[in-house]
Structures are given as structure tokens and as C-alpha cells.
Design goal:
Blueprint (H helix, E strand, L loop, with lengths): L1 H4 L3 H4 L29 H30 L6 H32 L16 E8 L4 H16 L6 E8 L4 H16 L6 E6 L6 H13 L5 E4 L5 E2 L1 H13 L3 E6 L2 E2 L5 H12 L1 H12 L10 E4 H7 L5 E2 L5 E2 L4 H11 L3 E5 L5 E3 L5 H17 L11 H30 L28 H26 L2 H5 L4 H34 L18 H23 L8 H8 L1 H8 L16 H4 L3 H21 L4
Parallel strand pairs: 1-2, 1-4, 2-3, 6-11, 7-12
Antiparallel strand pairs: 4-8, 5-12, 6-8, 9-10
Helix pairs in contact: 3-4, 4-10, 4-14, 4-15, 5-6, 5-8, 5-22, 12-14, 13-14, 13-17, 14-17, 15-17, 17-19, 18-19, 18-20
């Protein structure tokens, strides 16, 4: 093996002969000549979309109407209109989530089959597996790659697969590790497969530029490409099934899977993993039902028709501040919309099992990743006017931006609710005199029954998708068995609910800060995502969460003095405890705890075989790389 590690850089950084494919940069101001791509069952698709949007709009309309009738008793002021708009803006997205669950349940009750095709007439394809990386943990990336190739070799697939590790790494030591790991991977690649490695000298345009560089250099040789993240892991069966689907559906341009979270060992990671597996499947089913051929793309664990992507998804620069060219950051949503604009179908197959990814291990790591996504998602608002986009594609773009804008909206509502006090005497937001038209004269009931009912409705609606998902599992003994039994599942469900409620206000403040930074044009340097949990020192925790803590203490003072409603107690407690809650998020869960407290799920009780193989490959490569760094005796 030492001979392999001594291979020169020129040999290790190998790529096949170039086969260029032109990447067409799209004009967002002109409607393209789209291909004809008939959707399957347009009447059925329309019915599912009616089932999604009509109940959400009706529910929101009823609530806003009731709030208006109540607020209008003393006349509507500007601030009251703002409050009414914020309530409507936040509530409709909550009801859309509930409607998505309703669509999923209706589809399950109707026993509607998933959108899949028969593999009988599969046409063999050359498929590239693309792994773009940037300063990642080398052993993890190449260990996952080895596990996927070995699993693919067991499939007896008609398709031909080639793996490309596309590095944008800037760190010289990590780059050296990548070259050595590639040499080791190439030496053990199963027969019939090829692996290649390329490190760019300049990481122009980040991940987008990395993929464009591959397409324009080698894309013509491959009918399809499976785009993976550095932490992606897919079974050979899942990859092969996606390739079969694309092969048998000439109208499909992109097929996206539903990645399941793995590798969760800390409190925060296990919280996300349990939520993803226990409830996420229901939202995924609903999305697949109503989106149909106008699905979305999450940037990884998806298969794409290479020529379709090159012809229709080339991203232009946006005009930024002071006329400076600005890269489209959250490119995946936009690329899906451009593919559909050109007539290609974008499908979502939530029942393709064997698609995995990892999740940030701590609250801070999660927030740092969220900050990188925030600015890109807010760019979507500037892309809503793109000519020729399908209405559902515009909805996906808008939803991506709203996901972040909701946090400032919730924050403003929280501030208003705190200013309302507990009665007319403690109501700060009121008329001080008739000459001040900016402040409303709130009805005296605002702080009592009506506010309590409103908050209870909001909490109930927010928890409905989780309650429904948990209820379906709890009612089926076979389902609860893979969670360790009904008692363990229900305990885990309660723990997840409590922790989610505890972390939600902290995330609201952090996302609000991220939105403000994005709107001010402030952005952090592009950094690799932390994929291994670490216990942050107290100084870092205080510096990261001082804003939430200060707000919590202010609200706590209001509670203690009787100026703030007790209904805000859960939010106040969360903000005051932001620092210890953040420290708890990175706590490695000891295996001695009861199953329910560990929030066990099928992937932790019975680890998927490929996850175990990937861990073994990671360990082997880690040992190999560490040994190569030891000084010779």
C-alpha cells in the first residue's frame, strides 16, 4: 500500500480524455422555446393542488377575518394593519404544512401508487457520480465513495458508472490527503468501474463553477449525472433505481430522492434525525403528490439528465450592489425551475429508500450552515420575475425565501405581544392621546382569552404534522417495533417535541439576524461545513448567543413585574437558557440511557448495511492516511 501512497501528483490527479459539452447561460428576461413535456394526469395533479392550497387559504382567511372583526371594533390603525398582515403571513405557511399532511394522508388512503415506471425497457446509460468537495474530512468523503462503488458492484446493473471527486480544496495538507486517498480508492475500485479525481487551481463560482467545469470538460460522455454532497451516501440499489427511472422516462430532466439523516450522535443531531424519519416522510409524500412533475431540487442525492441541464440550467450572474456581478448562491432551486421552464419534468420520488446524508451535530453548526443558505434563498425574491417559469417553480422559489422571512415576522409578533402586556394598564402599545395616530387602542380582551386562544391555535397548527406522523406510527405495531416499541417511540416523540419547542425561539432570533445581515449585504467567507460535532467553549457560546440571552432577560423582567403575559413563558425560558441549551445540543448521548430518551429510530436501532460499510471504509482510510504522516524510522 505504501507504493500506492507514493504515486506522483500528476498520476493521482487523473481525468479521462476531455469530451466538452457546451453550457448555455440562460437569459432570465426572455422566455425560452420549451420542449413539449406533457404532465401525467393533469386533472389529478390539479385536484391535489386544489386540496393543498384551498384549505390553507380558507383557514387563513377565516382567522384573518376573525382578527379583523375583533380589531376593527375601535377602528383600524396602521399598526393594526401591520399586525393583521403579519398574522396572515405567518399563519398561511403553517396551514400549508398542515394541508401537505392532509394531501399525503389522502393519497395513502386512496392507495395511490408512487410515481414510478416499469424498468422493463431500461436503456443502459453512462452515469457519472459527482462528488464536489471543499476542505472536507478526506477519509469520510472517500470512505463513502468506496462503500457506494462496492454496493453498486453488487447490483448487476445495465448502466455504466464512473465516479468523479471534484475538489475545490484550498488547504494544501487536505489536498495532499485527497490525492493519497484517491490513489487508495483507485487501487481497490471494483472491476468495471472507473474513478477520477480533479482539483481545480481556482475555485471560481464555488460549487456551481465546480459542476460547470466538469460539464464543459467531460459532460458529453455521460447521459446522466448523480450529484452528491461530501456527506452523501446512497445504496447501489437507490442509485440504480434512479438511473432506471431516468432511462425509462424521456421527459424527466431531474429526479430527486428524499435523503434520510444518519450518523446522529449528539442531542441536536438526534433531534433532527428523529424528526426527519418520524415525520419527514409524511411531508415528503404530500409534496410528491401535489408537485408531480414540477418538483424541486435540494442540490444533492438526485440524478440529472446531463444535456438537459447543460442546455437549460446555466446560471447567469445577478447584478448586485454597486453593479457588481453576484453569484446565485442557492442554485439548486433555480436550476430545477429552469429545467422545468425548458419543458423537462422535475420529479420527486420519496419512496426511493437508501438515500442518506448527515446533519450538523450542534446548534451552532446548524446556525452557521443556515446563515450560508439564508442569503441565497433571499436572492430567490429577485428571480421571481424570470420569464417562462412554471407557477409551481415560482412557488418553490418564493417558499425558499419565506422560510427565512418568517423568522423576522414571528419576532415582530413576539415584540408586539410583549408590548400588549397583561391588561389595559400594562398595555404599552396604546393611545397616549388623540394626537398620536400610530398606536392602536387595543380591545381590553386582547391580552386574555383572545390572545391565549390565538397562541393555542398557532401551537396546535405547528405541531399538527408531527402529531399526525407520530399517530400513524403509534397505531401500527410493526411501525413502532422498529423504533424500539410503542413506549420507547412515544417517549422519544415527547422528548423531540419538548426540545423542538426549546430550540425554536433561539433559531428564530438567529435566522432574524441572518436575514438582517443578508439584506445589509454582509456575508461570511465560504467555509467548509463542520460535519463532526465539537463542544464549543463557554466564550464561544456566550459570543454566539448573547442577543437571545439579553432578549430573554428583558422578557423575564417583564414577566416578573407582571407586564408580560404568562403565555410567553416557554419563549422566555428558551431565550434565557440559550447558552446552556446550545451547550446541551453538542452533548454526545450515552448509550446507557433508555431507548426513548435516546430518540432511537430505525437507522439507529438497526443500522443500514451501507452505513456500516462506509464507517469501516472511513476508518481504514483514516488509518492509512495517518500512517503515511508518521516519520520514517
Amino acid at each position: 500500500m505504501k507504493d500506492i501512497l507514493d504515486i506522483s501528483e500528476q498520476t493521482v490527479s487523473s481525468m479521462p480524455p476531455r469530451q466538452p459539452l457546451h453550457m448555455q447561460v440562460q437569459d432570465l428576461t426572455a422566455r425560452p422555446e420549451a420542449r413539449i413535456a406533457p404532465t401525467q394526469g393533469p386533472t389529478r395533479t390539479f385536484a391535489w393542488r386544489i386540496a393543498l392550497f384551498v384549505p390553507a387559504l380558507l383557514g387563513t382567511g377565516l382567522l384573518v377575518s376573525a382578527m379583523y372583526g375583533w380589531l376593527a371594533e375601535t377602528g383600524m390603525t396602521q399598526l393594526e394593519w401591520v399586525l393583521l398582515a403579519l398574522i396572515g403571513m405567518t399563519f398561511i405557511w403553517v396551514t400549508l404544512s398542515v394541508s401537505t399532511v392532509g394531501v399525503a394522508i389522502a393519497g395513502l388512503l386512496a392507495r395511490e401508487k408512487a410515481e414510478t415506471r416499469s424498468p422493463r425497457d431500461v436503456t443502459p446509460m453512462d452515469v457519472a457520480l459527482l462528488v464536489p468537495i471543499y476542505n472536507e474530512v478526506t477519509s469520510d468523503v472517500f470512505g463513502n465513495a468506496a462503500a457506494m462503488l462496492n454496493d453498486l458492484a453488487r447490483q448487476n446493473s445495465p448502466h455504466r458508472y464512473t465516479l468523479f471527486v471534484l475538489s475545490d480544496t484550498r488547504d494544501p495538507q487536505i489536498a495532499e490527503d485527497e490525492r493519497r486517498a484517491y490513489a487508495a480508492l483507485a487501487a481497490q475500485t471494483p472491476k468495471g468501474f472507473a474513478v477520477h479525481y480533479r482539483r481545480r487551481e481556482m475555485n471560481t463560482d464555488k460549487k456551481v463553477g465546480n459542476l460547470v467545469d466538469w460539464i464543459t470538460g467531460w459532460g458529453a460522455a455521460y447521459e446522466a449525472m448523480v450529484v452528491l454532497d461530501a456527506d452523501s451516501l446512497m445504496t447501489g440499489r437507490a442509485i440504480d433505481r434512479m438511473a432506471d427511472e431516468l432511462s425509462t422516462d424521456p421527459q424527466a430532466g431531474l429526479i430527486q430522492t428524499f435523503p434520510v439523516l444518519i450518523g446522529a450522535r449528539t442531542v441536536f443531531a438526534r433531534l433532527q434525525q428523529f424528526s426527519n424519519i418520524a415525520y419527514g416522510w409524511l411531508l415528503a409524500e404530500g409534496l410528491a403528490k401535489w408537485a408531480r412533475t414540477e418538483g424541486n431540487y435540494w442540490g444533492h442525492n438526485a440524478i440529472i439528465r446531463t444535456r438537459a441541464f447543460a442546455e437549460s440550467a446555466g446560471l447567469p450572474y445577478l447584478q448586485g450592489r454597486r453593479g457588481k456581478a453576484e453569484l446565485i448562491l442557492s442554485h439548486d432551486f433555480v436550476e430545477a425551475g429552469l429545467l422545468r421552464r425548458a419543458g423537462w419534468q422535475v420529479r420527486f420520488l420519496p419512496r426511493v429508500s437508501g438515500s442518506f446524508e448527515e446533519t450538523p451535530g450542534t446548534l451552532i453548526d446548524y446556525v452557521l450552515r443556515d446563515q450560508r443558505w439564508c442569503r441565497g434563498n433571499l436572492q430567490h425574491l429577485r428571480l421571481l420575475g424570470t420569464k417562462g417559469l412554471h407557477p409551481v417553480s415560482r412557488y418553490h422559489l418564493f417558499h425558499g425565501a419565506v422560510a427565512y422571512l418568517l423568522s423576522p415576522a414571528w419576532f415582530v409578533l413576539l415584540v408586539i405581544w410583549a408590548l400588549l402586556g397583561v391588561d389595559s394598564e400594562t398595555n404599552v402599545v396604546r393611545y397616549f392621546n388623540e394626537a398620536n395616530p400610530l398606536f392602536p387602542d387595543w380591545p381590553p380582551e386582547m391580552s386574555h382569552i383572545d390572545s391565549a386562544v390565538f397562541l393555542m391555535i398557532m401551537y396546535a397548527m405547528l405541531l399538527t404534522p408531527k402529531l399526525v406522523g407520530a399517530g400513524i406510527i403509534a397505531l401500527h405495531p410493526k411501525a413502532t417495533r422498529v423504533y424500539g416499541g410503542r413506549s420507547a417511540f412515544l417517549t422519544a416523540f415527547l422528548v423531540e417535541i419538548v426540545l423542538s419547542i426549546a430550540y425554536a425561539p433561539i433559531l428564530m432570533i438567529q435566522q432574524t439576524r441572518a436575514v438582517i445581515r443578508a439584506l445589509l449585504g454582509q456575508s461570511d467567507a465560504w467555509a467548509a461545513q463542520s460535519r463532526h460535532a465539537q463542544n464549543y467553549p463557554l466564550r464561544t457560546l456566550v459570543r454566539f448567543h448573547w442577543v437571545e440571552t439579553l432578549l430573554g432577560l428583558v422578557l423575564l423582567t417583564g414577566l416578573a413585574s407582571g407586564l408580560v403575559s404568562l403565555w410567553l413563558l416557554p419563549i422566555v425560558a428558551s431565550l434565557c437558557l440559550a447558552i446552556p441549551l446550545s451547550a446541551l445540543s453538542g452533548w454526545a448521548m450515552p448509550q446507557g440511557l433508555p431507548s426513548g430518551l435516546l430518540m432511537h429510530c430505525p437507522q439507529t436501532i438497526r443500522e443500514p448495511a451501507i452505513v456500516g460499510r462506509a464507517r469501516e471504509e472511513r476508518s481504514r482510510l483514516r488509518t492509512l492516511l495517518n500512517a503515511s504522516k508518521l516519520p520514517a524510522e
